[in-house]
Amino acid sequence: MKFVAFERAKLGTGASRRLRITGRTPGIVYGGAVAPLQIEIDHNALWHALKKEAFHATVLDMELDGKDNKVLLRDVQMHPFKQLILHIDFQRVDATTKLHMKVPLHYSGDENSPAIKSEGCIANHVITEIEVLCLPADLPEFIAVDLSGLKKGSSLHLADITLPKGVTAVPHGGNKNPVLVSVVAVAGAEVAAPEAGAAAAPAAAGKGGKAAPAAAKAPAAAKAPAAKKK
Asked: pTM score, two decimals?
C-alpha cells in the first residue's frame, strides 16, 4: 500500500494540537542509519487506510518529498473516545535485514470438515495472527490455513500449517507449538441414534381396505354345577 506524508517542521505538544485541528496527524519515522523524522499525514486518508488489513501487516510505500520510502506500521495512538488518531509511528525497512512482524491467519474450509458437517462440532479459532521472522520481500500479507481436514477430538497446531517460503514462525510464552484451532463438541448436537426395531406392522386390512377388528375375547367357560350329594 502507498500513502503520502509530509515533513513536519514545528514540534511540541501545542504544535501537534494545532496540527490535528487542521485535519493532519503527527507521526514519526525511525530506524536505519539516519535520525528519526517527524512527519504529518492527512487524517481522513490515514483513518481509512487503518481499516485495511494490509496497512497493518505489509511493507508500505511512504511517499515523502516525491521519493518512496519502505516502512512498517509500528504503533497507533487513538483518542480515548473520539474517532481521532493522535499519533502514528513507522519504522524504516532495510531490504537486507530480517524483521519481526505479526501476520494474520485466514482460516477457510472448516464448514467442509468432518467435524463440522457430521460430527456435531464447531471450530474455535484460538489464535488469529502469528509473529514471523523474514526479509521484507518475503513478508506475506496473510497466511491461508485450510481447515477442511478437522475431525472430532483433534486440534490444529502451529507445526501443522505450511508457512510461505522464507518465513519462520516466532512463538511466544514458552510454547513452541501453540494450538491455533480447537475442535469443540456442541452439547446435544450429535445425530440421534435410530430407534431400535421398526414400528409394528399394521393389522391385516379387512374388506374395503379397513383394518379388521380385533378378535372378540372368548367368554369364559361356564362352571359345571357341582354334583348333588345324596
From this structure: 0.72
